[in-house]
Amino acid sequence: MNEMTTLSYQQHAYSAAAQKSLSRKPALFINGEWVASSHGELIDVEDPSSGKVVSQIVDASVADTDRAVAAARAAFDDGRWSGLPPIAREKIMLRLADLIEAHAEEFAELEAIDNGKPKTMAGAIDVPGAVSHIRYMAGFAAKVGGETTPPYTLPAGAFFTYTVKEPVGVCAQIVPWNFPLLMACLKVGPALAAGCTIILKPAEQTSLTALRLADLIAEAGIPAGVVNVITGYGHVSGDRLVKHPDVDKVAFTGSTEIGKLINKNATDTLKHVTLELGGKSPVVVMPDVDVAEAAPGAAGAIFFNSGQVCVAGSRLYAHRSVFDQVVEGIANTASFWAPRPSLDPAAHMGPLVSQEQFDRVMGYIEAGKRDGASVAMGGDAPSADGYYVNPTMLVNVNPQMSVVREEIFGPVVVAQRFDDLDEVVKEANNTQFGLAASVWTKDASTLHKLASRIKAGTVWANCHAMIDVALPFGGYKESGVGREQGRAGIEAYLETKSVIMKL
Ligand code: NAI
Ligand code: MG
């Protein structure tokens, strides 16, 4: 504990490159140009490590949003992108990936200042991940196509039948604040490879890297209007995108609550919808594990990115025979995960993204205590400017408590015991969500049983949150609709057309 109270919460100095981004004139990227908003409304940008306002961005109006959609529509309809030879699209996308990579240091710092995540983490995870999404999807530009499918009821010799894949069209891509650049590239990559045009709307809390990305999109040679970046609040510009008749698809990552609203709002214009939503992912620790490996693994599953991860391992189920050891092993990681300012090279965990998120997470911890949970680790926040919350573990919890049922989106894990496989499968599935799970065991048979019985889009074994762009990612139940990444990821940006020719 002493070690934690002597930490410094003073944010470190910004580099010249970061200061340049912070002092850029607030503008929207529409039709290849930086333009002012129709109304002069701005949104403050905070550094969560200090709580200070460090920049401002535009709050795009409905008129601004319409302008961005019109640009994307025109760019789609004249085929300036989809009409290029696929090799040209692939080359430009690879150039974009190279440019992001060349600015890795700058992106990592901007993300750390904007979101609060440690710069070291942004540099190790977010930026290389963003590059991989663009690079991997670039390869699909030339490699997805239809089939010459023989007919079934029609006479084969009298008809020639085939399918073609075509881009869905104008795509609205609405991303959250927890992995801003990574989520932007995860969305932009497949849409570009498919030949779509885009209006990207980053989260109002974290738009800096998306704006910098727009510079590189232009530099890479992506034609004007193909990718437009508008910043602003979800209920204004986001809502307009979702309802706009000229938008063909909405891809959203964020809360389940807003995901449901978007699904409803997209109905009148029957848009294609991809939703990556919340989770309450279980971490199941079987009795045969090496606790020295599993306990830090379970700690990382929840404390990475301050628990602001859709796949955060927020419900721990440890077998009764190892429960106490696992809880102790996690508690022992407290000083490793103690929150520090995002530019501190020693930081493994930063502050939460905002005052709103801080209040929400502290509110859940208080609710858990009121409901009778005991604090086995943390449970409090250091007194500091900025939105720091200490890594927290609650025990003596039950399945009715809000801390067990709801997505907290902070560094808070609830730990429960179990006795047998059927019991833990039932509890793991006792949730509205179905995004991910991890199971920790050396026994291959147990592993396969759990992998098949847990209802989740991704199941990890002896690791957690290992994401690979080649593997489809998405949720069961209320964790989402559709898949991103892998071949499924590009298919979500394609229409299939059947051509039936009478010879
Ligand atoms: P949110 O779901 O409201 O925001 C995500 C994105 O959606 C942002 O770009 C926002 O501007 C946009 N948006 C908001 N309302 C919209 C609307 N009516 N139409 C179109 N776009 C809209 O998430 P928020 O409010 O920042 O966080 C609240 C909670 O959501 C968090 O505490 C966390 O539990 C959850 N969350 C989950 C994420 C995940 O990856 N699973 C990511 C972010 C938040
Ligand atoms: Mg919201």
Automatic annotation (TrEMBL):
Residues 34-499 form the Aldehyde dehydrogenase domain. It comes from the Bacteria. The keyword Repeat does not apply. It holds the Pfam family Aldedh. Its EC number is 1.2.1.39. Keywords: Oxidoreductase. The active site is at 276. PROSITE patterns: ALDEHYDE_DEHYDR_CYS (PS00070), ALDEHYDE_DEHYDR_GLU (PS00687). PANTHER family: ALDEHYDE DEHYDROGENASE-RELATED. Belongs to the aldehyde dehydrogenase family. This is Phenylacetaldehyde dehydrogenase. The lineage of its organism: Bacteria, Pseudomonadati, Pseudomonadota, Alphaproteobacteria, Sphingomonadales.
